[in-house]
Protein 1
Amino acid sequence: MTISSFQPGQSHKITALINVSDVEHFVGLSGDAAPLHTNADFARKAGFEGPVVHGAFLIALVSRLVGMHFPGPNAVLERIDLSFRKPCYAPCEVELNASVRQISEAVATIVLDVTISDASGIIASGKSWHRILELEPVS
């Protein structure tokens, strides 16, 4: 997609399943084995229902949304500002939604409003900034 393909308010949603094994793999990849994410007793003593899914894992799902779906493979993520509203617990299904907030054709950039929700409401929300490459995507 080129920058002219986007309209303010245009949006796209994807869903993602988060399993306990996904979180375990993320611990292995990131090296973040903090007890809040890996130890149920610790998490409960800290006031949570159980181990909390890493915020960075949720940001990785935003990367999936913007890099693979919307705006898609021609988008370069330049910045993301995401606020975590409530904890996310595995297993669960989350919905990621991105909506075009602003377009600058002069510099081929767009700003998206991003939310991550589960069945009980919004987990995280914020904005992401992207440069749109004017190239044919490689498949």
Protein 2
Amino acid sequence: MKKFNKSETKSIIIIFCVLFFITGFNLSLSLRRGRDSIRKNDISAIQNSLDTYLQKYKTYPLSGSNGEIIGCFSGGVQLDPISEKPTNAEVCKWGQSKFEGVNFMPQDPSFKKGASYFFVSDGRKYKFYISLEGKDEAEYTPTIALMNLHCGTKICNYGRGN
């Protein structure tokens, strides 16, 4: 069996390096797009839960100062007899709390790096913000990024609301 000479060995190493670089880049891009897709799906799931909350209590849950949803209940729901709105709503914890048909509130796929979702509501209207990693995403919204809302350690750049 014949061995490779130096130039053939160099050529093979260069080809493998190029293939590893391209594969690594595509894998990184696919993982980023997957995380952004999860974020968009999470918003849709929470919007469905918010609509359920609205149907039950005739209001949207309020928001906390750090962008949390104040609409979870550790015990039974206590309603104000006049307004029929909940009086004992608590802050929902991302990734832990149960909220209107969702067993666990979703949390940003990069929560270990400090990323989070951001919710704003006055009871009549709401906006839900996330931070997409890809600036090339069709939904990336520079005007939201200019609002300088903090989705954890990231700046929010995409949102949905009613």
Protein 3
Amino acid sequence: MKMKTLGAVVAVAAALVSSSAILAAPEKLTDPKKLTAKAPDTFKAKFDTTKGVIVIEVRREWSPNGADRFYNLVKNGYYDGVKFFRVSPGFVVQWGIHGDPSIATKWLQSKIPDDPVKESNGRGMVTFATSGPNSRSVQLFINLSDNSRLDASGFSPFGKVVEGMDVVDKLDGSYGEGLRMLQGKIAEEGNAFLEKSYPNLDGIKKATIE
């Protein structure tokens, strides 16, 4: 009986530590101005997703501002738990709105300057979404096909999927383009909204710099 009680206490303590870590993780994400480290010239980011592992190789020379922002977001856990809310077969997979609205709203308002387009938006290339000049923040997309037509609109790739394009191709696309029009609601209500209304969405378990 005492052993069971001790075991229960240990389990509860472990759960509390785990919960504390989860709650503490976003603390460093509350002020985008503090996360401005310069990225290495080249690096890899590993995304452990609900469908498998995706590895993105980044080359800073392709898009310096984009590479720096991506590096800081991944290194500080921003993409952990984030959902792939837009999967458009033959076009793009898009993600980047944080599951916690208090974090999402801050970062969506934190813009970075444009970079010249040096690489084309071919299949597997990774690019920040933009809605106009100097509007990039946290949303990304992976090109699922040759989308070189996007080059002229200022979409500047900063990296490429070097492992796991088969995983990218398997991400759930059953909701089509509908969620693209609900980005404001996703930002306002976070993962609670997505998990309730769109439970089949795939997501990121953990993203790390390799």
Protein 4
Amino acid sequence: MTLSPIRLFISRAHWEQMEGDVRARLPEEACGLIIGESNRSRFIIPITNIFHSSSRFRMEPKEQLDAFLLAEDHGMEILAVYHSHPTGMTKPSAADFMELTFPGIIYVIWSIEASQWNCRGYLMKSQVDALEVPVVITQEKKL
């Protein structure tokens, strides 16, 4: 995969919040939204995976709508969808491509490698195409 010129900047606190969420929801895939501005995280919104599956996710609709409204109320945008792959796959799965809900948005995929959680970002442009996007941890504080 070719790296995209886009970068996603996530504060250390937000990184830790997402990592805590993906750990807490094992063995299911965790999911949620990253809200912010200028490709910088301002809010992490964990959302219930209504599939309760270790290989697929679907966000609970009311929680997802509430997150969209929060972004709108703060004049921000949905920067990325995050979810975990508890089985360790570090890139978009066949299910991720097949069930792509937001083409053109970054999907941050958390996976576990050698007992350590990490994440990688992908700009999911279509149901067959994804460009890797660097996820940069910053020292910014949460709002």
